[in-house]
Design a protein that fits this description.
This protein is of the alpha/beta class. The chain contains 8 helices and 4 strands. The two termini are 23 Å apart.
Length: 233
C-alpha cells in the first residue's frame, strides 16, 4: 500500500481528537466527536475506539473508489492499524507532557450484591488495567468487609467515593468514577453514579479512561473483542 494521504476533513478531525491540548482530555474530545457526527458505539467499545472506527470508515469510503473489493478491504485494515497507532502515539505524548488526562485517581463502582465473591475479581481486573495505564484506583472492597449489609455497605462506599485527600485542603481523593460493565443493573452503582454526577464528578465506563492501545488490549484480554471494522455492505 502506498503512503496514505487522508482527506483534509478527516485529518483535521484526527488532529482535533488526538493531538495534545491542555484544556481538554482526549476522552472528552472523543465524546464530542461521537456527538458531533452522531456516531453510535457498542456496549463494550470505548469512546476513543469508536472514534478510530468511524475515522477509518470515512477514510475507507473516501479512498475505495476505483479499487477492487479485495484491495479496498486490505486497505481498510491498514487504515485501521495506522489510525489506532496514531491515536496511541498522540495519547502517549500527551501523557508524557502531562496533559493527556487531568485525572490521576479513580473510584471504581459496579455490581456487587448477589455476585460470587461480591464480584471482586471484576473490580480487581479493572483496577489492574487502569493502574497499568497510570491511574491510582480504589474499589469498594478496600473499605467494606464481606457480608456487610447493603445499607451499611452503600454508606461506606459513598463516603469513600466522596472522601477528601488526606492533608490537602479542598482536594477530593478521587478525580473521577470508573464504571464496571453491568453497572446499569446495580441499584447501588446507579445511586453512586447519580450522586457523583450531581456533585460534578466525571463518571465514565472504565475502559474510557484507558489510552486507545490499552483499551483494545483490555478487551482482547477478556476474549470479548469484537471485529472493529467490517467491510461496507
Amino acid at each position: 500500500m502506498q503512503e496514505t494521504i487522508l482527506p483534509v476533513g478527516i485529518q483535521s478531525d484526527i488532529d482535533e481528537a488526538f493531538c495534545y491540548r491542555e484544556d481538554k482530555s482526549y476522552q472528552d474530545r472523543a465524546h464530542e466527536y461521537l456527538e458531533r457526527y452522531e456516531v453510535s458505539r457498542g456496549y463494550r467499545d470505548t469512546a476513543v475506539q469508536a472514534v478510530v472506527t468511524d475515522l477509518a470508515r470515512r477514510a475507507f469510503q473516501a479512498g475505495a473508489e476505483g479499487r477492487t473489493e479485495t484491495e479496498a478491504v486490505d486497505d481498510l485494515g491498514e487504515i485501521q492499524a495506522e489510525l489506532l497507532e496514531t491515536a496511541a502515539k498522540c495519547t502517549r505524548a500527551a501523557m508524557a507532557i502531562g496533559g493527556g488526562s487531568s485525572m490521576n485517581s479513580l473510584y471504581i463502582i459496579g455490581p456487587v450484591a448477589g455476585k460470587p465473591n461480591d464480584n471482586k475479581e471484576a473490580f480487581v481486573s479493572a483496577r489492574r488495567a487502569l493502574k497499568a495505564d497510570g491511574y491510582l484506583c480504589a474499589i469498594p472492597h478496600d473499605y467494606i468487609n464481606e457480608g456487610t449489609d447493603w445499607g451499611t455497605a452503600m454508606r461506606i462506599s459513598i463516603t469513600a467515593m466522596l472522601s477528601m485527600e488526606h492533608g490537602i485542603k479542598n482536594k477530593p481523593a478521587f478525580d473521577g468514577v470508573a464504571m464496571l460493565d453491568g453497572w446499569e443493573e446495580s441499584e447501588g452503582a446507579k445511586i453512586e453514579k447519580q450522586l457523583a454526577e450531581a456533585l460534578g464528578i466525571p463518571c465514565r465506563p472504565w475502559r474510557d479512561y484507558l489510552s486507545p492501545a490499552k483499551g483494545a488490549a483490555a478487551l482482547a484480554a477478556e476474549s470479548a473483542l469484537q471485529p472493529i471494522f467490517a467491510p461496507a455492505c
